[in-house]
Amino acid sequence: MNSIRIIPRLARAFPQTGRLVSRRPFLLTAIKPFSSHSALKSSPGKTQNPKGALTFPDTQKGLPEFNLADRVVLVSGGARGLGLTQAGALLEAGARVYALDQLEKPSPEFYELQSKAEKEFGTSLHYRQIDVRDEAKLHKIVQDVSEENGRLDGLIAAAGINEEIPALEYTAADFNKMMEVNVTGAFLTAQAAARQMVKFGKGGSIVMIASMSGTIANRGLICPAYNASKSAVLQLGRNLAAEWGPYGIRVNTISPGYIVTTMVEKLFVEFPERRTDWPAQNMLGRLSNPREYRGAAVFLLSDASSFMTGADLIMDGGHHAW
């Protein structure tokens, strides 16, 4: 189709001034199918196969800035849930991944992904048991992994806990535990990774999992300690980015919205109204699933985000924007 349409000149009067404003016409030209352009057929570096379709032999397939081949990445909280899902994305992008978690054994899905990493992706997935509050053991594991591979390129700090307890009933022990795991644990993991990155002198990327709850109060959800801990993660990320930027280490955070996980499904049994209330609170009218955060993990750990640090990536279906 080669027709040309001209949009007529438009004019309208602004009631405040009575002025008449006209807009220039602009052309809409229907573009021919890609392979029919003679200019492209003769362009250097491009060839035409027998069927007439163009090929590009001089270019690398895909977007190379998303390639994580040969990079070594840690994922705390990586034995299940969101951490394991993001680990899978990193493996597909070519990274060697070490999952850190306090579970004695990772979930069955972990072993499925481990087998897939070797057979399909040509890389590897490993497991190290650790409570992120155990400073000495944590630093030893991160150091061993780094020295074993001769590098450390990235970290996703996804380990965290949540409890729904009214503020009037919270004990100091419960509140402190929440802060120790979600804030102190995240800091210690980032610190351990950054020390190795500085030692090898190649920089790196650290991603800390925060939450939309770090900047809003969730309607109908009573979790003051969790929300406070995620707000602390956001501020921690910004400060680490400022301090470690000179070493070439980028630090960013991701703020997810409500995610449908096995734990959340169990919560819906106890509070069935949340299955309909929560989706109604965002602009998309639905809840997210862990797979929707895969791309964010690869983006932030790859060169695709090489000029991004000290930032928070909000992925909440527009919940914040109302």
UniProtKB/TrEMBL annotation:
The alphabetized UniProt keywords are: NADP, Oxidoreductase
Species this protein is from: Discina gigas
Question: Can the keyword Repeat be found in this entry's annotation?
Answer: no
Q: Which Gene3D superfamilies match?
A: NAD(P)-binding Rossmann-like Domain
Q: Which PANTHER family match?
A: BENZIL REDUCTASE (PTHR43008), CHAIN DEHYDROGENASE, PUTATIVE (AFU_ORTHOLOGUE AFUA_4G08710)-RELATED (PTHR43008:SF4)
Q: InterPro entries, per this entry? A: NAD(P)-bd_dom_sf (IPR036291), Sc_DH/Rdtase_CS (IPR020904), SDR_fam (IPR002347)
Query: What is the designated name of this protein?
Result: Short chain dehydrogenase
Please name the Pfam families in this protein's record.
adh_short_C2 (PF13561)
Similarity field: Belongs to the short-chain dehydrogenases/reductases (SDR) family.
